[in-house]
Specification:
Blueprint lengths: L2 H6 L10 H26 L8 E5 L4 H12 L3 E6 L2 H14 L3 E6 L5 H15 L4 E4 L9 H4 L1 H29 L2 E6 L12 H20 L5 E8 L11 H6 L7 H13 L4 E4 L2 H11 L1 H11 L4 H6 L5
Parallel strand pairs: 1-2, 1-4, 2-3, 4-5, 5-6, 6-7
The structure holds NADP nicotinamide-adenine-dinucleotide phosphate (NAP).
Length: about 325
């Protein structure tokens, strides 16, 4: 064909479907449908917790207290465990007011092996079943690794990880016997991405995530659901001493009640892992994929007095 003829021809029309808008529309549509299904399932299961026996460790304050109140509001039997007896009694009264089927206060130091056994045994003696075990109790001790000392590291692993594993082991036979139950392990977004000076804490929480993942696979056909709850910064005693530093970085702080509501929805929907972190949650996913970039971002974000703040951060 000659160049003259080509010149006179109109440009061919582009009849192909524009792929990007199509993909965006499909993505938004799929997200919308999944939200609708989620809401419908939650509505259908409004009575899900009614009459269920729920053990909550670390129920005397913070996220554990918020969880206890959320279960109580839905008519569960709540078993409240922690060391502070007075605070537990107050939480029990609040649970009764909210509509709990019943409350049982079991003062427990989860660093003590016998106390862990007693917690499960006394619950069984009283209710003859355990529907949900929420391993929530935890501590944090901040500071640079070369300062914190072995005992501090061991204590965080003992309370945050080993006690949780042992309590799970103790409750599991009772759930297996009935072929149902939920084990909720409270880890942290720090188990996926840690700020500086919380290395032992992050190690304990990453351990929780790993333990729960293995257990979930082990129990796939058992009827028992294993969920990991990963809060990010939440407004409790755990962050009180370095709240100023968190605020200076513009990190969002969540109310414990919001964490509890997401956890209960996760149980109903049998989700494997529930993250409560907003923007930080998205950043954590990116940080996992791009660790060098994450380290660089931390260098930019870290306040100059971070070490001082984190040294003061001890809930034990
Ligand atoms: N707040 C956050 O920003 C955040 C973020 C991610 C994950 N988390 C995790 O969420 C969970 C709850 O933390 P929180 O923020 O609610 O902290 P919190 O307000 O300090 O509460 C900690 C709870 O753990 C209990 N506890 C500590 N040591 C215990 C022991 N030896 N035996 C029994 N109970 C013990 C405490 O009760 P007693 O002192 O009465 O024993 C208290 O009820 C923890 O696992 C924490 O690591 C918190």
């Amino acid at each position: 064909m000659s160049a003259e003829v080509e010149k006179g021809k109109p440009m061919p029309e582009n009849r192909g479907t524009p792929i990007l808008p199509f993909l965006i529309a499909a993505g938004v549509g799929a997200w919308g449908v999944s939200r609708l299904i989620r809401e419908a399932r939650l509505r259908q299961n409004q009575e899900y917790f009614h009459g269920k026996v729920v053990i909550i460790t670390g129920a005397s304050r913070g996220i554990g207290k918020a969880l206890a109140l959320a279960f109580a509001k839905r008519g569960a039997h709540v078993v409240l465990a922690a060391r502070s007896v007075g605070a537990l009694d107050q939480v029990a009264s609040a649970c009764d007011e909210r509509g709990a089927a019943s409350t049982l206060v079991l003062p427990t130091d989860i660093s003590d092996l016998e106390a862990r056994r007693a917690l499960i045994q006394k619950t069984m003696d009283h209710y003859h079943q355990i529907d949900i075990l929420v391993n929530n109790a935890g501590i944090v001790q901040g500071g640079p690794v070369n300062e914190v000392g072995y005992e501090s590291m061991a204590k965080q692993i003992e309370i945050n990880l080993l006690a949780l594993m042992h309590l799970t082991q103790l409750a599991l036979p009772h759930m297996l016997e009935r072929g149902r139950g939920h084990i909720v392990n409270v880890a942290s977004l720090a188990g996926h991405w840690s700020e500086a000076n919380f290395s032992a804490y992050a190690a304990s929480k990453r351990g929780v995530i790993g333990f729960a993942m293995g257990l979930r696979h082990e129990l796939l056909d058992s009827g028992i659901h294993v969920m990991t709850l990963n809060p990010s910064e939440t407004d409790t005693d755990q962050i009180t001493n370095y709240r100023e530093a968190i605020d200076s970085m513009g990190i969002e702080v969540h109310p414990p009640e919001a964490v509890a509501e997401k956890a209960l929805a996760g149980i109903v929907l049998r989700q494997p892992e529930v993250n409560v972190g907003g923007l930080l949650e998205k950043a954590t996913v990116l940080a996992g994929a791009f660790p060098r970039l994450a380290a660089l971002a931390w260098r930019v974000m870290e306040p100059s007095n971070w070490d001082e703040f984190t040294r003061q951060q001890r809930t034990e």
